[in-house]
Specification:
With 201 residues, this protein is an alpha+beta fold. It contains 4 helices and 12 strands; from the N terminus they run αββαβββββαβββββα.
Length: 201
């Protein structure tokens, strides 16, 4: 007798199931997928900084930040958990998903960098309510920011250096990179031969 392939799980069933799990899961193609655990301290530092900045700036606006304990529906029936998000919809205290996600942010890691940069980014860009997507580099002060324009087209900007800032027009705020990376110690860059004194053409 052949084993039957399990039926794809719907969003409501997944959320009810995931609420009872010790680990975090996303719903991909109707199948629960466990998220990677064990984020480094630098990841948490950036998450805390970003949440603090967003909460301070958005207080009283009707929008509020959420963590990876919250979730968003990207493609129909697909549930993702961004590292940080902003929900501008009506808040359900018992809810498990953002009602009207306006921003999502992912802090890149060696294990998820390519996936976050390509596959997950493509999913986020399909979300009608979303206006801003941030991919944040943890090892250098660098953020890739996508913003949806008035006609619905996405525009990408790369902001580098602690003197830079990210303009989030849909949230009416500006995030300085110096505050996103507050307290973060970056790894030393390897010295190139061309940087050594007395070298060069």
């Amino acid at each position: 007798m052949l084993d039957r392939k399990p039926e794809p799980m719907g969003v409501a069933a997944f959320l009810a199931w995931a609420e009872g799990q010790a680990d975090r899961y996303e719903l991909v193609g109707g199948v629960p997928v466990r998220m990677m655990a064990g984020a480094r301290n630098v990841h948490d530092d950036i998450v805390v900084n970003l949440l603090t900045l967003l909460r301070t700036h958005l207080r009283g606006s009707g929008c509020r930040p959420f963590t990876a304990d919250g979730s968003v529906e990207t493609l129909p029936g697909q549930v993702r958990r961004p590292d940080v998000g902003v929900d501008c919809g009506a808040r359900d205290p018992a809810g498990l998903m953002a009602a009207e996600p306006r921003l999502v942010a992912e802090i890149l890691s060696p294990t998820t960098r390519d996936f976050d940069t390509f596959a997950k980014l493509a999913e986020y860009r399909t979300m009608a309510s979303l206006a801003h997507i941030l991919l944040i580099e943890p090892n250098a002060p660098e953020v890739r920011s996508w913003s949806r324009g008035a006609e619905g087209a996405w525009q990408e900007i790369r902001i580098a250096g602690l003197d830079g800032a990210i303009d989030l027009h849909a949230l009416k705020l500006r995030l300085p990179l110096a505050e996103i990376y507050d307290g973060v110690i970056f790894p030393a860059r390897p010295r190139l031969l061309a940087d050594e004194p007395g070298t060069g053409a």
